[in-house]
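Hey all, quick one. A colleague (J.T.) asked me to put the arginine job into the tracker so the inputs and the structure tokens live in one place instead of scattered across chat threads. No bug as far as I know, just bookkeeping. Sequence used:
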Amino acid sequence: MTSGGGQGGHGPGAALWGGRFEGEADPLFREFNDSLRFDYRLARHDIEGSIAWARALGRAGVLTDGEVESLTTSLGELRERVKENPRLPLESREEDIHSWIERELIKKLGPLGKKLHTGRSRNDQVATDLHLYMDEACGERTLEMAGLARALVDLAEREVETVMPGYTHLQRAQPILFAHWALAYANMLSRDRARLDDLRRRLSDEKGCPLGSAALAGTTYPIDRHALADDLRCRAPSPNSLDAVGSRDCVAELLSAAAICAVNLSRMAEDLILYTTQEFALVEMDDSVTSGSSLMPQKKNPDAMELIRGKAGRIVGALTGLLVTSKGLPLAYNKDLQEDKEGLFDAMDNLSMCLRMATRVIAGVKVNREACREAALGGYSNATELADYLVGKGIPFRDAHELTGRIVRRAIELKARLEALPLDELKKFSDVIGPDVVGALTLEAGLARREVFGGTGPGAVRDAIATARQRL
Ligand code: ARG
């Protein structure tokens, strides 16, 4: 076989490494081994790394200025072609994206195309591609997280006066503002973003740019790795070549940040799924993000939220998969590491969808304010207020708790809310209780007593909205 055909089998001129091999590759082996069908997505990153490498070879005196110019121009053209048609590499039968790009260069430039791989290995190449991909993915996910956080802060602003029941153990616990609920998730998202920022900094600094590590021991050419790292927007080159080509902990870190975010989203989804049931009926979702049943005409199903809840599973799965794949791998590069990419891409694609979908859902959420208030009034969720009222009258908290528990039991017998119990009924439990108890038991009174920083008091929540807005 001649070069340029992209056949990729064993044997001279077929695979890029064919020299040592005599026979043809087993087709099943090709199918098993080749990674082009998924790593074609790294074309842009591989081209960027290759342009930087050509320049580095030029600075090292390995290539002439003219050669660098030709290589970078051709790589630039290739980048345009890929931009136009990202699936272009899939039209070939190359082993992986690195081979595809090299083959395209050779087609275009002949022998010069064969010079680009001087002093480089696919091992530091793929590590560099991943590095660039992850940096980009962090940037994209950060923007999507900010979009969702913004939608949540907007929701908080709309519902800053809506009182709803807060739950613990999924039992009505104490009244909260709906805005407080929305801001809880905005806060989680802000930590999700911080984790990505942190990773980006670590990629650039401690991890550093892997290029120049070659196969495992470092390149033999006098490459200025600091300038090379700089060219690839890293603050430093990776400090150890074995580590640089053999580690995927940063991929695990990104997957971990993704898994944590996905789990946070799944909890938000579950809250909304519950709140939209007829049993809770606190919230309604916009028709545009729900679906009907093929059998039951009355149904309006929260599919978007259910899928967000469900997709957390596969993203956690990607993290688990990579950790298990990495466990016990000897240094440095092993082909096992090729297994890092599909999970990573899948996790990023799905997290992206979840974040964008959740943004739409939150933007269209309609809160049933009356139902929220009714629910907050029920379930004796002002019992803590009664206990605190008794404490205010000089009764030790433990006794006040006991007393209130007995009053709640009596109220349940009478099928009445605490604030509806007649004063003489209340006085049977304690004569410190006076007519002022009614005011102490209103929703507004309960909220107003929680103006502590971070609490659900209306003032505290307004401050929190302002802070969250600023953070965006
Ligand atoms: N497709 C490979 C991967 O994703 C690229 C690196 C191959 N290196 C090698 N020595 N075979 O890991």
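Adding what we noticed when we looked at it: Residues 18-118 form a domain with the Fumarase C; Chain B, domain 1 fold (CATH 1.10.275.10). The beta strands are 163-168, 171-177, 283-284, 366-367.
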